[in-house]
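Entry under discussion copied across for reference:
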Amino acid sequence: MSRLINPVCIFLIVLGSTFSEGQRHRVIPHPPAPAETQRTTSGEPPQKKHFDALQIQREARELSDLAKSIPLDMERVNQGLMPKDMVEKLKRIEKLSKHLRVEVTY
C-alpha cells in the first residue's frame, strides 16, 4: 500500500508544481500609448461656428408648435386611436432639439 502512495504523492506534487509554475510567469499587459492630439500650427483660437439666427428662430418655433400638439395626440392614443403622423412628429422634435442644442452650444 505504501508503495502505491509514494508514487501517487510524487505525481501530485509534480503536477501541482507545474500548474503553479504557469501562474507565476504571467505578464501584466501595459495600457496602450495615448493617442496623439492634433495641434493647430497657427496660434489662432478656433473660430466659432456662424449660425443663422433667423433659421434658429424658425426651428425653435416649429419645435414649440410640434411639442404643443403632442398632448392632444396622447389623448387620442389613450382613446385607442393612433394618429398616423405622431411618430414622425416625435422624430422631428428629437431632430430639431438636437440641432438647436448643437447650434446654441457652439
